[in-house]
Design a protein that fits this description.
It contains 5 helices and 42 strands. It is mainly β. The protein has 2 domains: 91 residues, no CATH class; 255 residues. The strands form 8 sheets. The chain has a 10-stranded parallel sheet with strand order 1-2-5-18-21-26-29-32-35-38.
Length: 489
Amino acid sequence: MKCHYSFQLLLLFLFFTFASSANGKILNTDYIDIERKARRLKKTILRAKSDYTINGAVYYVSSDGDDAYTGTDIEHPFKSLDKVNSINLHSGDVVLFKRGDMWRGCIHTKAGVTYSAYGKGDKPILNGSPFNAAVSGTWVETSVPHVYAYSEPIKLDVAVLVFNDGEETAFKVMKRLSDDRSTTLHIDLDEKFTSFADLRRDLDFWHEPDNGVVYLCSHHGNPSERFKSIEMPVRRHGFYATDDVTIDNFCIKYVGSHGIGSGTTRSLVVRNCELGWIGGSIQFYGDRQPTRYGNGIEIYGGCGRYVIDHCYVYQCYDAGITHQISAVGNEEVLMQNITYSNNLIEDCVYAIEYFVGSAENGANRRMQNVLFTDNILRRAGYGFGNQRPDKMTPALIKNWGHYNKASNFRIVRNVFDRSKPHSLHISADKPEWLPKLQDNVHILLKGTDALLGSPEKTYPVDENYGNLMRTLFDEEGGRYIFVDEDDIP
């Protein structure tokens, strides 16, 4: 494997020796440098030491603990998330989870509290899947060929099935009404679909809302024999964040809603965390079909401080990181002091998403003091979020053409590494609200486009892209590398 990877790097070196920028400069080793930089950043994040300040009590949590303990010393830790969620915590307290241990469920944070890790080894894992369905429960063959039913009913909506730590994923079948509303159809195949009896495609699954049974089509035998692990993210957050919370050094995986979700908050800081396989649950049922959702880290509403630093986020159904408020409602919203820095975000539908909708009665809504810096954002629209019916929305930065009133908004020294169909979607109602870009590296897929400006327009990715960035966003020091999809090993 090591020799094969070295050969891939050599191919990349040879290809990009001849790649040109928009201004004609040779960009020989840029892409190899980006690969190396991404690996270094990932390693730094995964090996990060715990970072917290104690201004109150300290509580310890271990899978070998006991909820009857006091939890206040390292030799007598709590055991369960239920205990952590029930204890009376105060601002300044710190809750430490043992490295290398895993918990299934979710954490409801308390205001002013820091959640971090202790001990040695890998980050503590917060797993949003109730079961490893390859070893817990049984898969029972039904009367339908190749269709198996899982023995443990699950009441919360199952977002996706993830096999063997991400080697494969199942497709979540949902019903869509036909144009004449006379028939329910498979949302992806547009074939008639009424129940699990219509499952035909390998690794399609149906979660029956009435009884909670999960049905999986497996053409290669019983799922528990075919796979060593089957995780089932369900509709809940990993962390429910509130005011003045810090979350440090967690691995948050297999969560059906948001990895970390918050409404309006005074302060949320997330650092040194890994978040993967997030989202995909049904958010609401529309007129003709359901809509799914799920972001890695989200604030929906206002904030006084929002810092995401040194996080590795991947495989999110929607965005890796986001702050947002829609046009629904008439409350004033201020989003301020937002920093996304030194993050590696890969294979999400949107790497970074933000939007501020105008209030219904004209109430003031705005962003101020926003900085995206030194992030590596890669492969928007490449992950399992491609299960979405609308495959035309992905972008590395996405703001949906909303109102987006902003001041002191900067996007500096980031790497934008491939997105389809749009490289970037950055727009606002007024030109002065657009962010300023500087010193970013853009790796652009030929044949794609960008949604940019005020008013928003569609621009092709071509030799004029660099001039466009300079004209719309005052970008200085930008580098632009144009690639074909087939050119990337």
